[in-house]
Batch of 3 targets.
Target 1
Amino acid sequence: MSRKISIRDKKQWLEMFEAGRTEAQIARVLKRDPRTVARGIEEAIKARRITNIDDDMIRKALFDHQAQLRDILKEVASILVMPPNNLELREEKDGNLADIPISGGRVKTISEDQMILEIEVEKKLEWELLQEHLKQDRIWDYLKQWRSAVPDYVMAEWQFKKAIKKLLENEGLELKQRRTDEETDYFLPALVELFNEVAVKKVLNIPDETNLEAGIVAGEDGFIRHGQGGTELAHCKDAAKCRDKIVAVFTSLPQTPEASEVKCTHGTLAEITKTAKREIDELLLLNLVTGKCRVCRRLGR
């Protein structure tokens, strides 16, 4: 049975061999069997080759891991955008707001006066690993603020829309889901949607050429429409008088507390969205996600 050669000896022989000495010279200097020296050098070369392969694989694994983490950062950056001003705010049968899809997630109602933001990226394992890497980074505080600001703004828009409905009801109009032949004073959902869309733009100083004061007209058939022959908005026995009441409601909307809340929450959301997005962009510019996670430790980093 061949005698086992120590790692230390094999390393020494390989260094001498690569320095230019022959196997015979090494054997003579160290007073070892030339065949043993030759076998030791061969084993050392094989071991180093395996080590180099392992190192290359680990380097590639770490490189791929970094790419996965940067992809998560890019995904987060892609959802840090302002929601559209014409959010589809739909009431469920229980009176609560239906879930609202937004970029990369949804706003969900959990009670009459509370909403939360759920984002899809949080369901990925890479999200947990990113949190481990950037444990102390300020980005998490910014994202926490953003996640709170989004539902706050949606809730403000929802309360504003409910306020429009209430103001119209205060004028003696009843909400009907569809046109009826009843000779009653009522308004249709289209009126609320129109007022909400145009008034929100007015509150947020978004350019809009819609002139509802001039565009809402009363017809001889009792219907109030948006433009001659346009969308039916309401029906009243005295259409002309009712039309003036409806226009007055629209004119009063920017001065309501609900409108002020829309403006305030929109400003807060815009600021934190900008801040969080800039922070993510800076992290991406590093081309390296600092810190470590459990995957890094498994790879021996």
Target 2
Amino acid sequence: MKNICTLLAAVLLTATTYAQIGINNETPDASAVLDVTSTTAGFLMPRMTNAQRQAISNPAAGLQVFVTDFEGGRFMFYDGTEWGTLSFTEKRPDAPTIGTATAVSGEATVPFTAPSSNGGSAITSYTATSSPGDFTGTISQSGSGSIIVSGLTSGTAYTFTVTATNAIGTSLASAVSNSVVIPQPQLGDFYGGGVVFHLFVEGEIGYVAGETHGLIAAVEDQSADIRWHNGSSVTTGATATDLGTGSANTDAIILVQGETETSYAAGLARAYTGGGYNDWFLPGINELSQMYLRKGVINATATVNSGSNFADAYYWSSTEGPSNNAWMKVFYDGYQELNPKNYRVSMRAVRAF
């Protein structure tokens, strides 16, 4: 009680002496009797129920309160004659209306209809959120549309909600969508940043019983004019040929040729970040052969996902040969041959999932 009295006395003394009170502010504005400064919190006026407001005896003109149980919570003021509400001319949007979600490998498409009210401020974006996982996808527009949510796990069932955002804030979430199960990746699917071109089978490196794993080709070439080596034709030991060994080959090349650089094929492959992934590598010769066999499927999916066709050209593999040579594949007739590492030809990265 003694501390409270001391504080009140200090406030009254300050008010009497300076005519203004500053909180977190040593120089309150001369036009204000109370000047509160903060960059981390707001002013919280008295909160009460509507019945408690009505019970206020002889309210002063200008009295303001926040009524918690009136139309979901409203600011109210007394003008000297009667109580009224402070109306919002701009507020957050109403919730969007969600549509029927659909799923493909690794992602879902969530359609929505724009809310009937944007809150008086133009809607700038919509966000869909998954359950479980809280994976999100956002689209920047004002009207109805569809949102793609990526990174979803195959075999898992998901539902989604959508929110709308304007300059004032973000709406309540929409109703929950229907449940969709993310299917396992299939050959030709756009998945994991590229196109699925091989699914591992028993006996191959990367195969796991009861799970789906395989190889993904980038949707475009990373170069049409690049050497295998980084200026030095030294032996790297990257001689593996089997499916599932291209990543190890790439590691071996980079270990000898230097940290990831964009001046040689393996370094450029590892530096590629398509789809947001950083585990791309230069394919081994058998992986490159599978890419050639499925180039029609890869081309078809790549070109509708901002990619391009394979060129009728030579492509580097990560498989090293003898005498300072490495294996490459000819993508117009399927022939493969050893050529010097300083040849400049095309390359396209792959990754495993």
Target 3
Amino acid sequence: MEKFTEQRSYESKWHLDRRVNVSIVLAMLSLAGGFTAWAITIDSRVAEQKVRIDNNTEAIADSEARSFRSLDAISGSMNRINDKLDRLIERK
């Protein structure tokens, strides 16, 4: 029974079979390295896009504020024109 336990613990450990070609191991390692390099570049691109989005958000907020100020100015002008028209109508 003890021999079976020793054999089972030996079999449960991870090991590389000698029949596996070195070229396959190297190919797997290069694939893993390529994937890691790709993931790093994706991470930097995402960070770059985040900065661009933040800048665009600020620009949009500034543009929106300018639009509201312009709208307020137009509204004020329209109110003054309306008041003048009312005075002209009252004179007649």
